Structure formats: structure tokens, C-alpha cells
Structure to design on (473 residues):
């Protein structure tokens, strides 16, 4: 958690529900909130909305916190847990009741279902009809269960000047008297959100536009309480490449899947999500410092952004090329060990670190980087993949033998001498360097793709290189 931010009157929040993984839409919302707060020298806070006790899990909470930390989305102050604040939510509901801004509704579940059935039959919008709005509670009997409902205005309109959506209006006649406190005394989501935002000092509510309808109801509640109104900014949701709502088939995975399964770097995921629905000219690669300096809500588009897995891969490849070699080696070592089904030795790790500069330019994710390094640690004789086997067919083994003879006569195993020997073998065979390099690559790595052949020879060393060639001859 960050403790460096100064309030400056600007406070934003990210409020995930721990009923599932931290998905990329949530990450983008958190990122936008963080950047806006930091841009203005304000605070960014985290609230876990865990009031759905049946579906909220400790594992989901842990995954959210872990994902936030992995992405360096540092929040200010302690994490707020909504469920722990139920007494405060109840207090506010009773405050509204005492002030005449709310009332007790004694309608039974059966009565409410009959009301909805009649509205459905008449093809009317299904809303609470206000049957207890002006009735005397004594009509219900002393022990009758009740909910507390907001006495919402039914005349006029509610207007939101949204920083992304623009001016949005709803007629108050379209909104009913929402429940604030259930009959068992537990608060509803609407009440809890408004109270928590107020108590946390939230000045700007930046969230997905699927919450826009909630904002009208929440604003009525805020006005009934006489509290300061936050600035709203409702961000369009992320869609798949086909324009449909983002789902798992489009890549709507949990953050941990991008990290653990897909091998995406956190800075790459951040950069990609930043550019989904927000832009700064033609800039594609944007650092955190630049994003904080440039970020404004005015630059957030109104149209849904489209998720493009190929673009994410491209951005990730850029950040892999730019990443520190020691950091990459540490990240891919467990992946290599899993593929080999054995731990890496200290000498293995040193070899991996030396090889990263040649390996990373060809990898688009950590999985590819790990797979491309496997040849370094394979036990002789190598199992050749299908592509490598084809490279040794026809003239392949003859050309490999000529290269083996030339390399075996070298007095020193240096880049210059390796280059000269292989080129000499190609000239003696009357062919190009590539024709010799391909079967050589197959014998040395067991694959049809690898770093440059001279880098491979240097990394493996004389004894291992010649031994692998001999195995195939």
C-alpha cells in the first residue's frame, strides 16, 4: 500500500466484489482510478465489497489483493471491508427514517409477487408501487417484519453530468422507492456503497458504465442525506474483438491467468489496458510516470473498447525485450524446471542468465521464452521435434557432417572462428550458410527454431555441441 499520496481533495476508489477472480475490466477500472488520483496528487483507496456472504470467499479476496500488488496498483491507507461496516450502514438508514426521508414497508413477499404479476400482466414496468409510503406503521401490527425504503422524489428528474458519458437524465417517475435495509437488518448494496463512499471521502466515482443506472438511485440517496455529491465518470465496458460482451472465449480471464498461464508481464498488461478506451495521441508504449502525467477523464472514449489478444502479445513482446535479464531469468526458471520435470542447478541458472539476451528478442511471452531455452538443458541424445527431423532429411546429415568436421578442427571456440568454420563448410559444400545452419540447428537444439546458430554454439560450448552433432550422425 502506498502512503505517499496527499489528499489534495481528490479521492478515488476501486471497489471489487470478491465473488470471483480479478478480471481485466476490473483492473482497467482500478488503473484509471489510480492514475486520476495520482495525476491530481490525491488518494486512491481500495474497498472490498464483501456483503454477499454466500458468494464472497477468502480465496477471491486474496486473489484480488495479490493481483493488485502484482500490477503495482498501490492503494492508500488500509483496505476497507464493507461487511464490517454494517452497523454504520444501519445507523444511516435509521437516520433517514427519523428524518422523514425513508419509511417502513411492511409488504409481504407474497404481496410483492402479486404486485409484480399484475404489472407483468398489464405490461407495465416492474417497480414498487409505494403502498406503504404514506401509511401509518401501526396498521401492520406490533411485530410485523419490515424493510426500510427511501422516500424518493417522484416528480421532476435526476441529472448526472458524467465526465465520460456527458449529461445523462432520468425521470424520477421511472425510479421507485428502493430498499435500504432488509427485514433482517442487513443493508442493501445501494445503501452500503453510498455510505462507504461518503465516509471514505470519495470525490470521484470512476467505474464501468454498467453502474450508470445505479448512479441515479445513489444520487437520490446522497441528496436525501444532504451529503456532498461525487463527480461521476462511467467508463464503457470492454468488448471482444467481435463486438460482443467480453467473455472467457475472448480472453476475459483472471489476472492470475495472464501472469501464471499466459506469461504476461505486469507492465505489459497495464500498458495494454491503459490504451483500451484511453489514448494520448499516437503513443503506444507508455510508462507509469507518463500515464500519471497525461491521464485525464476527458480522453476516455464513450464507445466500448475491443480486446485484442494479438495486440496484447505484441505489447508484451516489447516489454520482454526491454526487461532486465536477471529478472527474466528468475521468472522463466520455474517454467523451464516444470517443462524439464527437474529443478535447475546453479550452473543451469548461470547458463540461462547468459543466454537471455539472445533468447528474449524472439519471445512474445514467458512461456515462449522458457520453451526457447529448453535446448540448453536437455539431456543427450536429444529428442528431435518433427520440424528438426525434416531438417536432417535429404542432404541434411551430409551437410551436418561437413560442419561437424570443420568445427571439430577449431583450436579455439570463439564467435569469429565458429563463423569462419561454418561458412567454410558451406562454401566447400557449394551451398549457402542457411542450408548448413538449419541441420546444425536441428542437431544442437532438437528444434527448427532457435537463437542465431553461432550464439547456440557458444552457449552450449565445444564438448556439448560436438557431442550433440555426433548423436545425429
Amino acid at each position: 500500500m502506498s502512503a505517499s499520496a496527499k489528499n489534495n481533495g481528490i479521492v478515488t476508489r476501486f471497489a471489487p466484489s470478491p465473488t470471483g477472480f480479478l478480471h481485466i475490466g476490473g483492473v482497467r477500472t482500478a488503473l484509471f482510478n489510480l492514475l486520476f488520483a495520482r495525476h491530481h496528487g490525491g488518494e486512491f483507496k481500495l474497498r472490498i465489497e464483501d456483503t454477499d456472504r454466500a458468494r464472497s470467499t477468502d480465496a477471491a479476496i486474496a486473489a484480488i489483493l495479490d493481483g493488485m500488488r502484482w500490477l503495482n496498483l498501490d492503494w492508500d491507507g488500509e483496505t476497507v471491508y464493507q461487511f464490517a461496516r454494517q452497523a454504520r450502514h444501519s445507523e444511516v438508514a435509521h437516520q433517514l427514517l427519523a428524518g422523514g426521508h425513508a419509511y417502513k414497508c411492511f409488504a409481504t413477499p407474497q404481496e410483492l409477487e402479486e404486485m409484480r404479476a399484475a404489472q407483468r400482466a398489464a405490461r407495465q414496468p416492474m417497480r414498487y408501487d409505494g403502498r406503504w409510503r404514506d401509511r401509518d406503521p401501526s396498521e401492520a401490527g406490533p411485530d410485523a417484519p419490515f424493510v426500510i425504503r427511501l422516500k424518493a422524489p417522484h416528480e421532476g428528474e435526476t441529472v448526472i453530468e458524467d465526465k465520460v458519458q456527458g449529461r445523462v437524465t432520468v425521470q424520477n417517475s421511472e425510479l421507485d422507492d428502493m430498499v435500504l435495509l432488509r427485514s433482517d437488518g442487513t443493508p442493501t448494496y445501494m445503501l452500503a456503497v453510498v455510505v462507504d463512499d461518503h465516509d471514505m471521502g470519495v470525490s470521484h466515482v470512476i467505474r464501468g458504465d454498467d453502474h450508470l443506472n445505479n448512479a441515479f438511485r445513489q444520487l437520490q440517496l446522497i441528496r436525501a442525506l444532504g451529503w456532498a455529491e461525487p463527480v461521476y465518470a462511467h467508463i464503457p465496458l470492454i468488448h471482444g474483438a467481435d463486438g460482443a460482451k467480453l467473455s472467457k472465449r475472448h480472453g476475459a480471464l483472471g489476472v492470475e491467468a495472464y501472469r501464471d498461464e499466459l506469461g504476461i508481464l505486469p507492465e505489459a498488461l497495464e500498458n495494454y489496458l491503459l490504451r483500451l478506451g484511453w489514448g494520448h495521441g499516437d503513443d503506444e508504449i507508455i510508462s507509469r510516470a507518463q500515464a500519471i502525467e497525461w491521464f485525464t477523464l476527458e480522453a476516455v472514449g464513450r464507445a466500448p473498447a475491443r480486446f485484442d489478444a494479438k495486440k496484447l502479445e505484441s505489447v508484451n513482446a516489447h516489454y520482454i525485450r526491454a526487461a532486465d535479464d536477471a529478472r527474466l531469468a528468475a521468472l522463466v526458471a520455474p517454467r523451464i524446471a516444470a517443462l524439464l520435470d527437474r529443478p535447475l542447478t546453479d550452473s543451469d541458472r548461470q547458463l540461462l542468465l547468459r543466454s537471455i539476451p539472445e533468447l528474449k528478442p524472439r519471445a512474445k511471452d514467458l512461456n515462449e521464452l522458457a520453451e526457447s531455452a529448453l535446448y540448453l538443458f536437455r539431456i543427450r541424445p536429444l529428442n528431435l521435434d518433427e520440424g528438426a527431423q525434416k531438417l536432417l532429411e535429404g542432404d541434411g546429415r551430409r551437410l551436418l557432417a561437413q560442419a561437424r568436421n570443420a568445427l571439430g578442427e577449431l583450436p579455439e571456440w570463439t564467435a569469429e572462428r565458429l563463423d569462419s568454420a561454418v561458412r567454410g563448410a558451406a562454401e566447400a559444400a557449394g551451398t549457402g550458410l542457411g542450408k548448413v545452419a538449419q541441420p546444425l540447428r536441428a542437431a544442437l537444439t532438437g528444434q527448427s527454431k532457435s537463437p542465431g546458430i553461432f550464439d547456440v554454439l557458444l552457449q552450449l560450448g565445444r564438448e556439448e555441441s560436438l557431442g550433440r552433432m555426433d548423436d545425429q550422425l
The CA atoms of residues 187 and 204 lie 23 Å apart. The chain has four domains: 1-78+236-322, 85-191, 324-377, 386-472. DSSP finds 18 helices and twelve strands in the chain. The radius of gyration is 31 Å.
